[in-house]
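**User:** Everyone, produce a chain:

**Assistant:**
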Amino acid sequence: MPLLSYLAPSAPATRQLATGDEPFLRPEIGFTPKWYYQALGINFGEQWHTDPSFRREAALAMRLELKRKFPDTAIGQLRAEKESIDLLTGTFGACTIAGIYGIPIIYFNDKWPVCAHQYLSDEALDLLRPPDLDNNEFFKTLLNQVQWIIEQEGKAIGYINWQGVLNNAFRLRGENIFLDMATNPNRAHHLFECVATTMIDAAQRLYRIQRHSGFVVNFFTVSNCLVNTVSAEYYMNYLLPYDKQIAETFGCIGIHNCSWNADPYLDAYSSIPNVAYIDMGMRSNLALARKLFPEARRAIMYTPMDLANKSLEAIKQDFTKIAEDCGPCDIVLADMEAGTPDERILQVTKICEKISDNLK
């Protein structure tokens, strides 16, 4: 079954399972923490990420606000939610793997957390080993939150954003990871292997607990936000083996690329088994993406700037081209900031509905 884009309230993008009844052109809309901070006064500081009871109150308030502003839409909804609520997605933002490796996390009232710039030296990297998750305090804190969620809600619904191998390596090593690839391949591979091992190990442990609670996660999504900072050749030589390893381990993978042109990497991506989702910017060769990934749900990242600044007619033309070249697919409207008119959000959902009706 394909995967869909999923934007939980105030959380970085992740994925969820499709059900097979999706519209031809499906909008997935999400807002930044600042949007909720200004609308509701929710504080997204450390307590939001470490206290699931605090996060629960915030989640309920955010969903009520979305229903009030955008009635009769699916904005902010996870299809698996019925009796229970998603209290996991967004926890620690994109910093979980870095946190496991001991990198301090910096929290903000109105933004996602970021990692401190405390990068591994050459010597520390050469001695690095994947952490023992049984005795890792950061990971145990996360699992304690999961246990609280199960006790309160019955199920541990939601997804941790594990990021991608290069994203995580950059948080641990900084810009030197690019020098490592050019001048010390063994050192670069050592870090990538450590990171990939931890991503797989942590996810498998969490998934077992979630499955026991009644919520099954049987896929993994990688965030390749930084892949376009390296050449296609470097991706194939350094990073593709780990994306393949992840895909083979979990049997189903989604690939997130942000809104850049993914053309140089599409052929390499097509060699990864079990791709169920792939996204990219609209300057990518959308017809080629559909040809290379016929069984995956494609998704186009449409920028907040275009949504805010383009005319409705121009947006309609963009969406029509996306649907014709790449559909059926998602249009991901992520990171909507405070100040984006509610009416514009509702207008673009209507545009998607009309295009879907014409092309289904």
Q: What stands out?
A: The domain at 3-359 is CATH 3.20.20.210 (TIM Barrel). DSSP finds 15 helices and ten strands in the chain.
